[in-house]
Design goal:
The structure holds two protein chains of two kinds.
Chain A (H helix, E strand, L loop, with lengths): L6 H28 L1 H27 L3 H34 L2 H4 L6 H31 L9 H25 L6 H12 L11 H9 L3 H12 L4 H7 L1 H30 L6
Helix pairs in contact in A: 1-5, 2-5, 3-5, 3-6, 3-7, 3-9, 6-9, 6-11
Chain B lengths: L3 E10 L3 E11 L4 E5 L6 H8 L7 E6 L2 E2 L4 H6 L1 E4 L12 H11 L4 H14 L15 H13 L5 E5 L7 H16 L4 E6 L2 H7 L2 E6 L2 E7 H5 L6 E7 L4 H8 L5 E4 L3 E7 L3 H13 L4 E7 L3 H17 L1
Parallel strand pairs in B: 3-8, 3-9, 6-7, 7-8
Antiparallel strand pairs in B: 1-2, 1-4, 4-5, 9-10, 11-13, 11-14, 12-13
Classes of the chains: A mainly alpha, B alpha/beta.
Amino acid sequence: MIKVCPCLPVLARGYRTGQLLVGEIRRRVLLAWSYRASWLTSLVLFYVGFLALIFFFDQIAGGYGNTDQIMTAIGYLTWFCASGIIVGISDAIVEEARNGTLEQIYLSPAPPALIFFGWSLAELLLSGLGTAVMGTALIFTLQLGIPLKASLLPLFLLTLVGVYGFAYLLGGLALIFKQVGDLPGFIANILIFLTGAIVPVEGFPHPFRLVAYALPTTQGISLMRAVLLEGKDWPQLLAEGGLPGLLINSAIYLALGLLAFAWCERIAKERGSLGHY
Amino acid sequence: MSAIEIHKASKIYSGGIEAVKDLSFTVRRGQIFGLLGPNWAGKTTTVKMICGLVTPTQGQIRVNGFSISRERGQVLRSLGVVLEGARNIYWRLSARENLRYFGALKYQYGPRLEERIDFLLAHFDLLKRQDDLVQEFSRGMQQKVALAAALVADPEILLLDEPTLGLDVETSRLLREQIRGLAKEQGKTILLTTHQLPLAQELCDRIAIINHGELVALDSVDRLLRIFPEERVDIEVRGRLDAHLREALLDSPAVSVDFDGENSLVTLPSGDQETLVHLIGILHEGGVELLRFNRRIPTLEEVFMRLVGQGESRRER
């Protein structure tokens, strides 16, 4: 009798799940490719927008130096990636509902959460690509000497965990109220001012600073600046409480987002409004 | 074990709208089962409850023996669904990419999936345009892609919500043949909703008629056609009958006379030989030209209209 390794079914399940995720990413990338012109246009707009911002600060502050530019670039690029994810997930849900394909996702035997995880990965890939392209363009245009460090990547990803939670919270609303329209975009745009993406929150008045720290990306941006500009390492961030703060913030947003999304899914199924637009 | 079992399912939407009331029926394996009803009868809600897109307010639904509320994954593994409308697929993807994606959603991948896609594209005559974007396809071709996508994981059971709605006559006929083939040649169980009654009469083995969410009738097509057993005889005569002749004809019980603008149709129950001979005598004496003489069995459409009409009368009372 041939003995079958007990790990085989687990491996098979893992492979099957991997294929599903690859399929999901492939579809999102193919659809995004069909909108490549508008994607490139928005990239150019945000790039020009950042240059205008730097020019504006330089004129006001008089001599906006390289360090200031790096500080703003970190915040701006993180916000750009985060807003892409926040708007991307809500927009995708609304667009799927408008196209009539949202219900098809719920007809898969795979848990919808897994499929939406595939969406998230695709969104990360697309937003990450946009951020990388724009970041490279900014580095060359402004001659920014950003000393890239490996420890930045985990901080960046940890920040995005909270962003995903926030995106799913808004995505859940989009499941019930398909006419959320520009709300996610509006919220994403407000975040640029409230999360210290441009001006560090350390300069905010006390009550605003508290609100800012509760928002997604604020703590992540602050920590990434500390690593890049102040040369802090992880043990220091841990000891000062910044890293645990980011961990807690991201975990809370993720848990809240997923719970809210599941709750909104249940409501949409009860109302029979999954396919409505 | 039945393919689909619905037991006392109800759905009340917010605002107190009762879309489905206490609905029970079973669909046997290999059958084409028609769910018929006028608009807003609750057909789509029923289909969506079967596949878990709408949560029933109460009742149980089992597919292949699995409960949709507790064993969603197992249920959806054996289901292929084409929902109403042309938007079940991605218009900005090609036919092949759509099938690849829907295959991945059903955990299909690799060479086996590609083989299945090749088979389906050939089966639905889409091979030549497999790489064209679906948005460039006709409505009929889009519906074929949607049906192929529902079949990509080779499910045992198919739910088709108004599959031929909006299709031209030729495409509708082709799709009908394909649906029949899926059941008769591939042994698939098919539940289809439609308000195109000739389609249901032609395709279905069993039919449930629902109205205002309630089951009005449930039987085989043959038996439904015998619910109102009185067959009728039509006598078609040329031109409009004069008032005197009409009166003479209408003196006989259960006789009706209609004029369609060109010819007149005299209808009577087929079992009444005496009246038939009497009416022919009247028409002959009146010098009317007899065009056609026909014994008519009620169509599913007539049965449907009467059943739904009875329900409406009861509701009004």
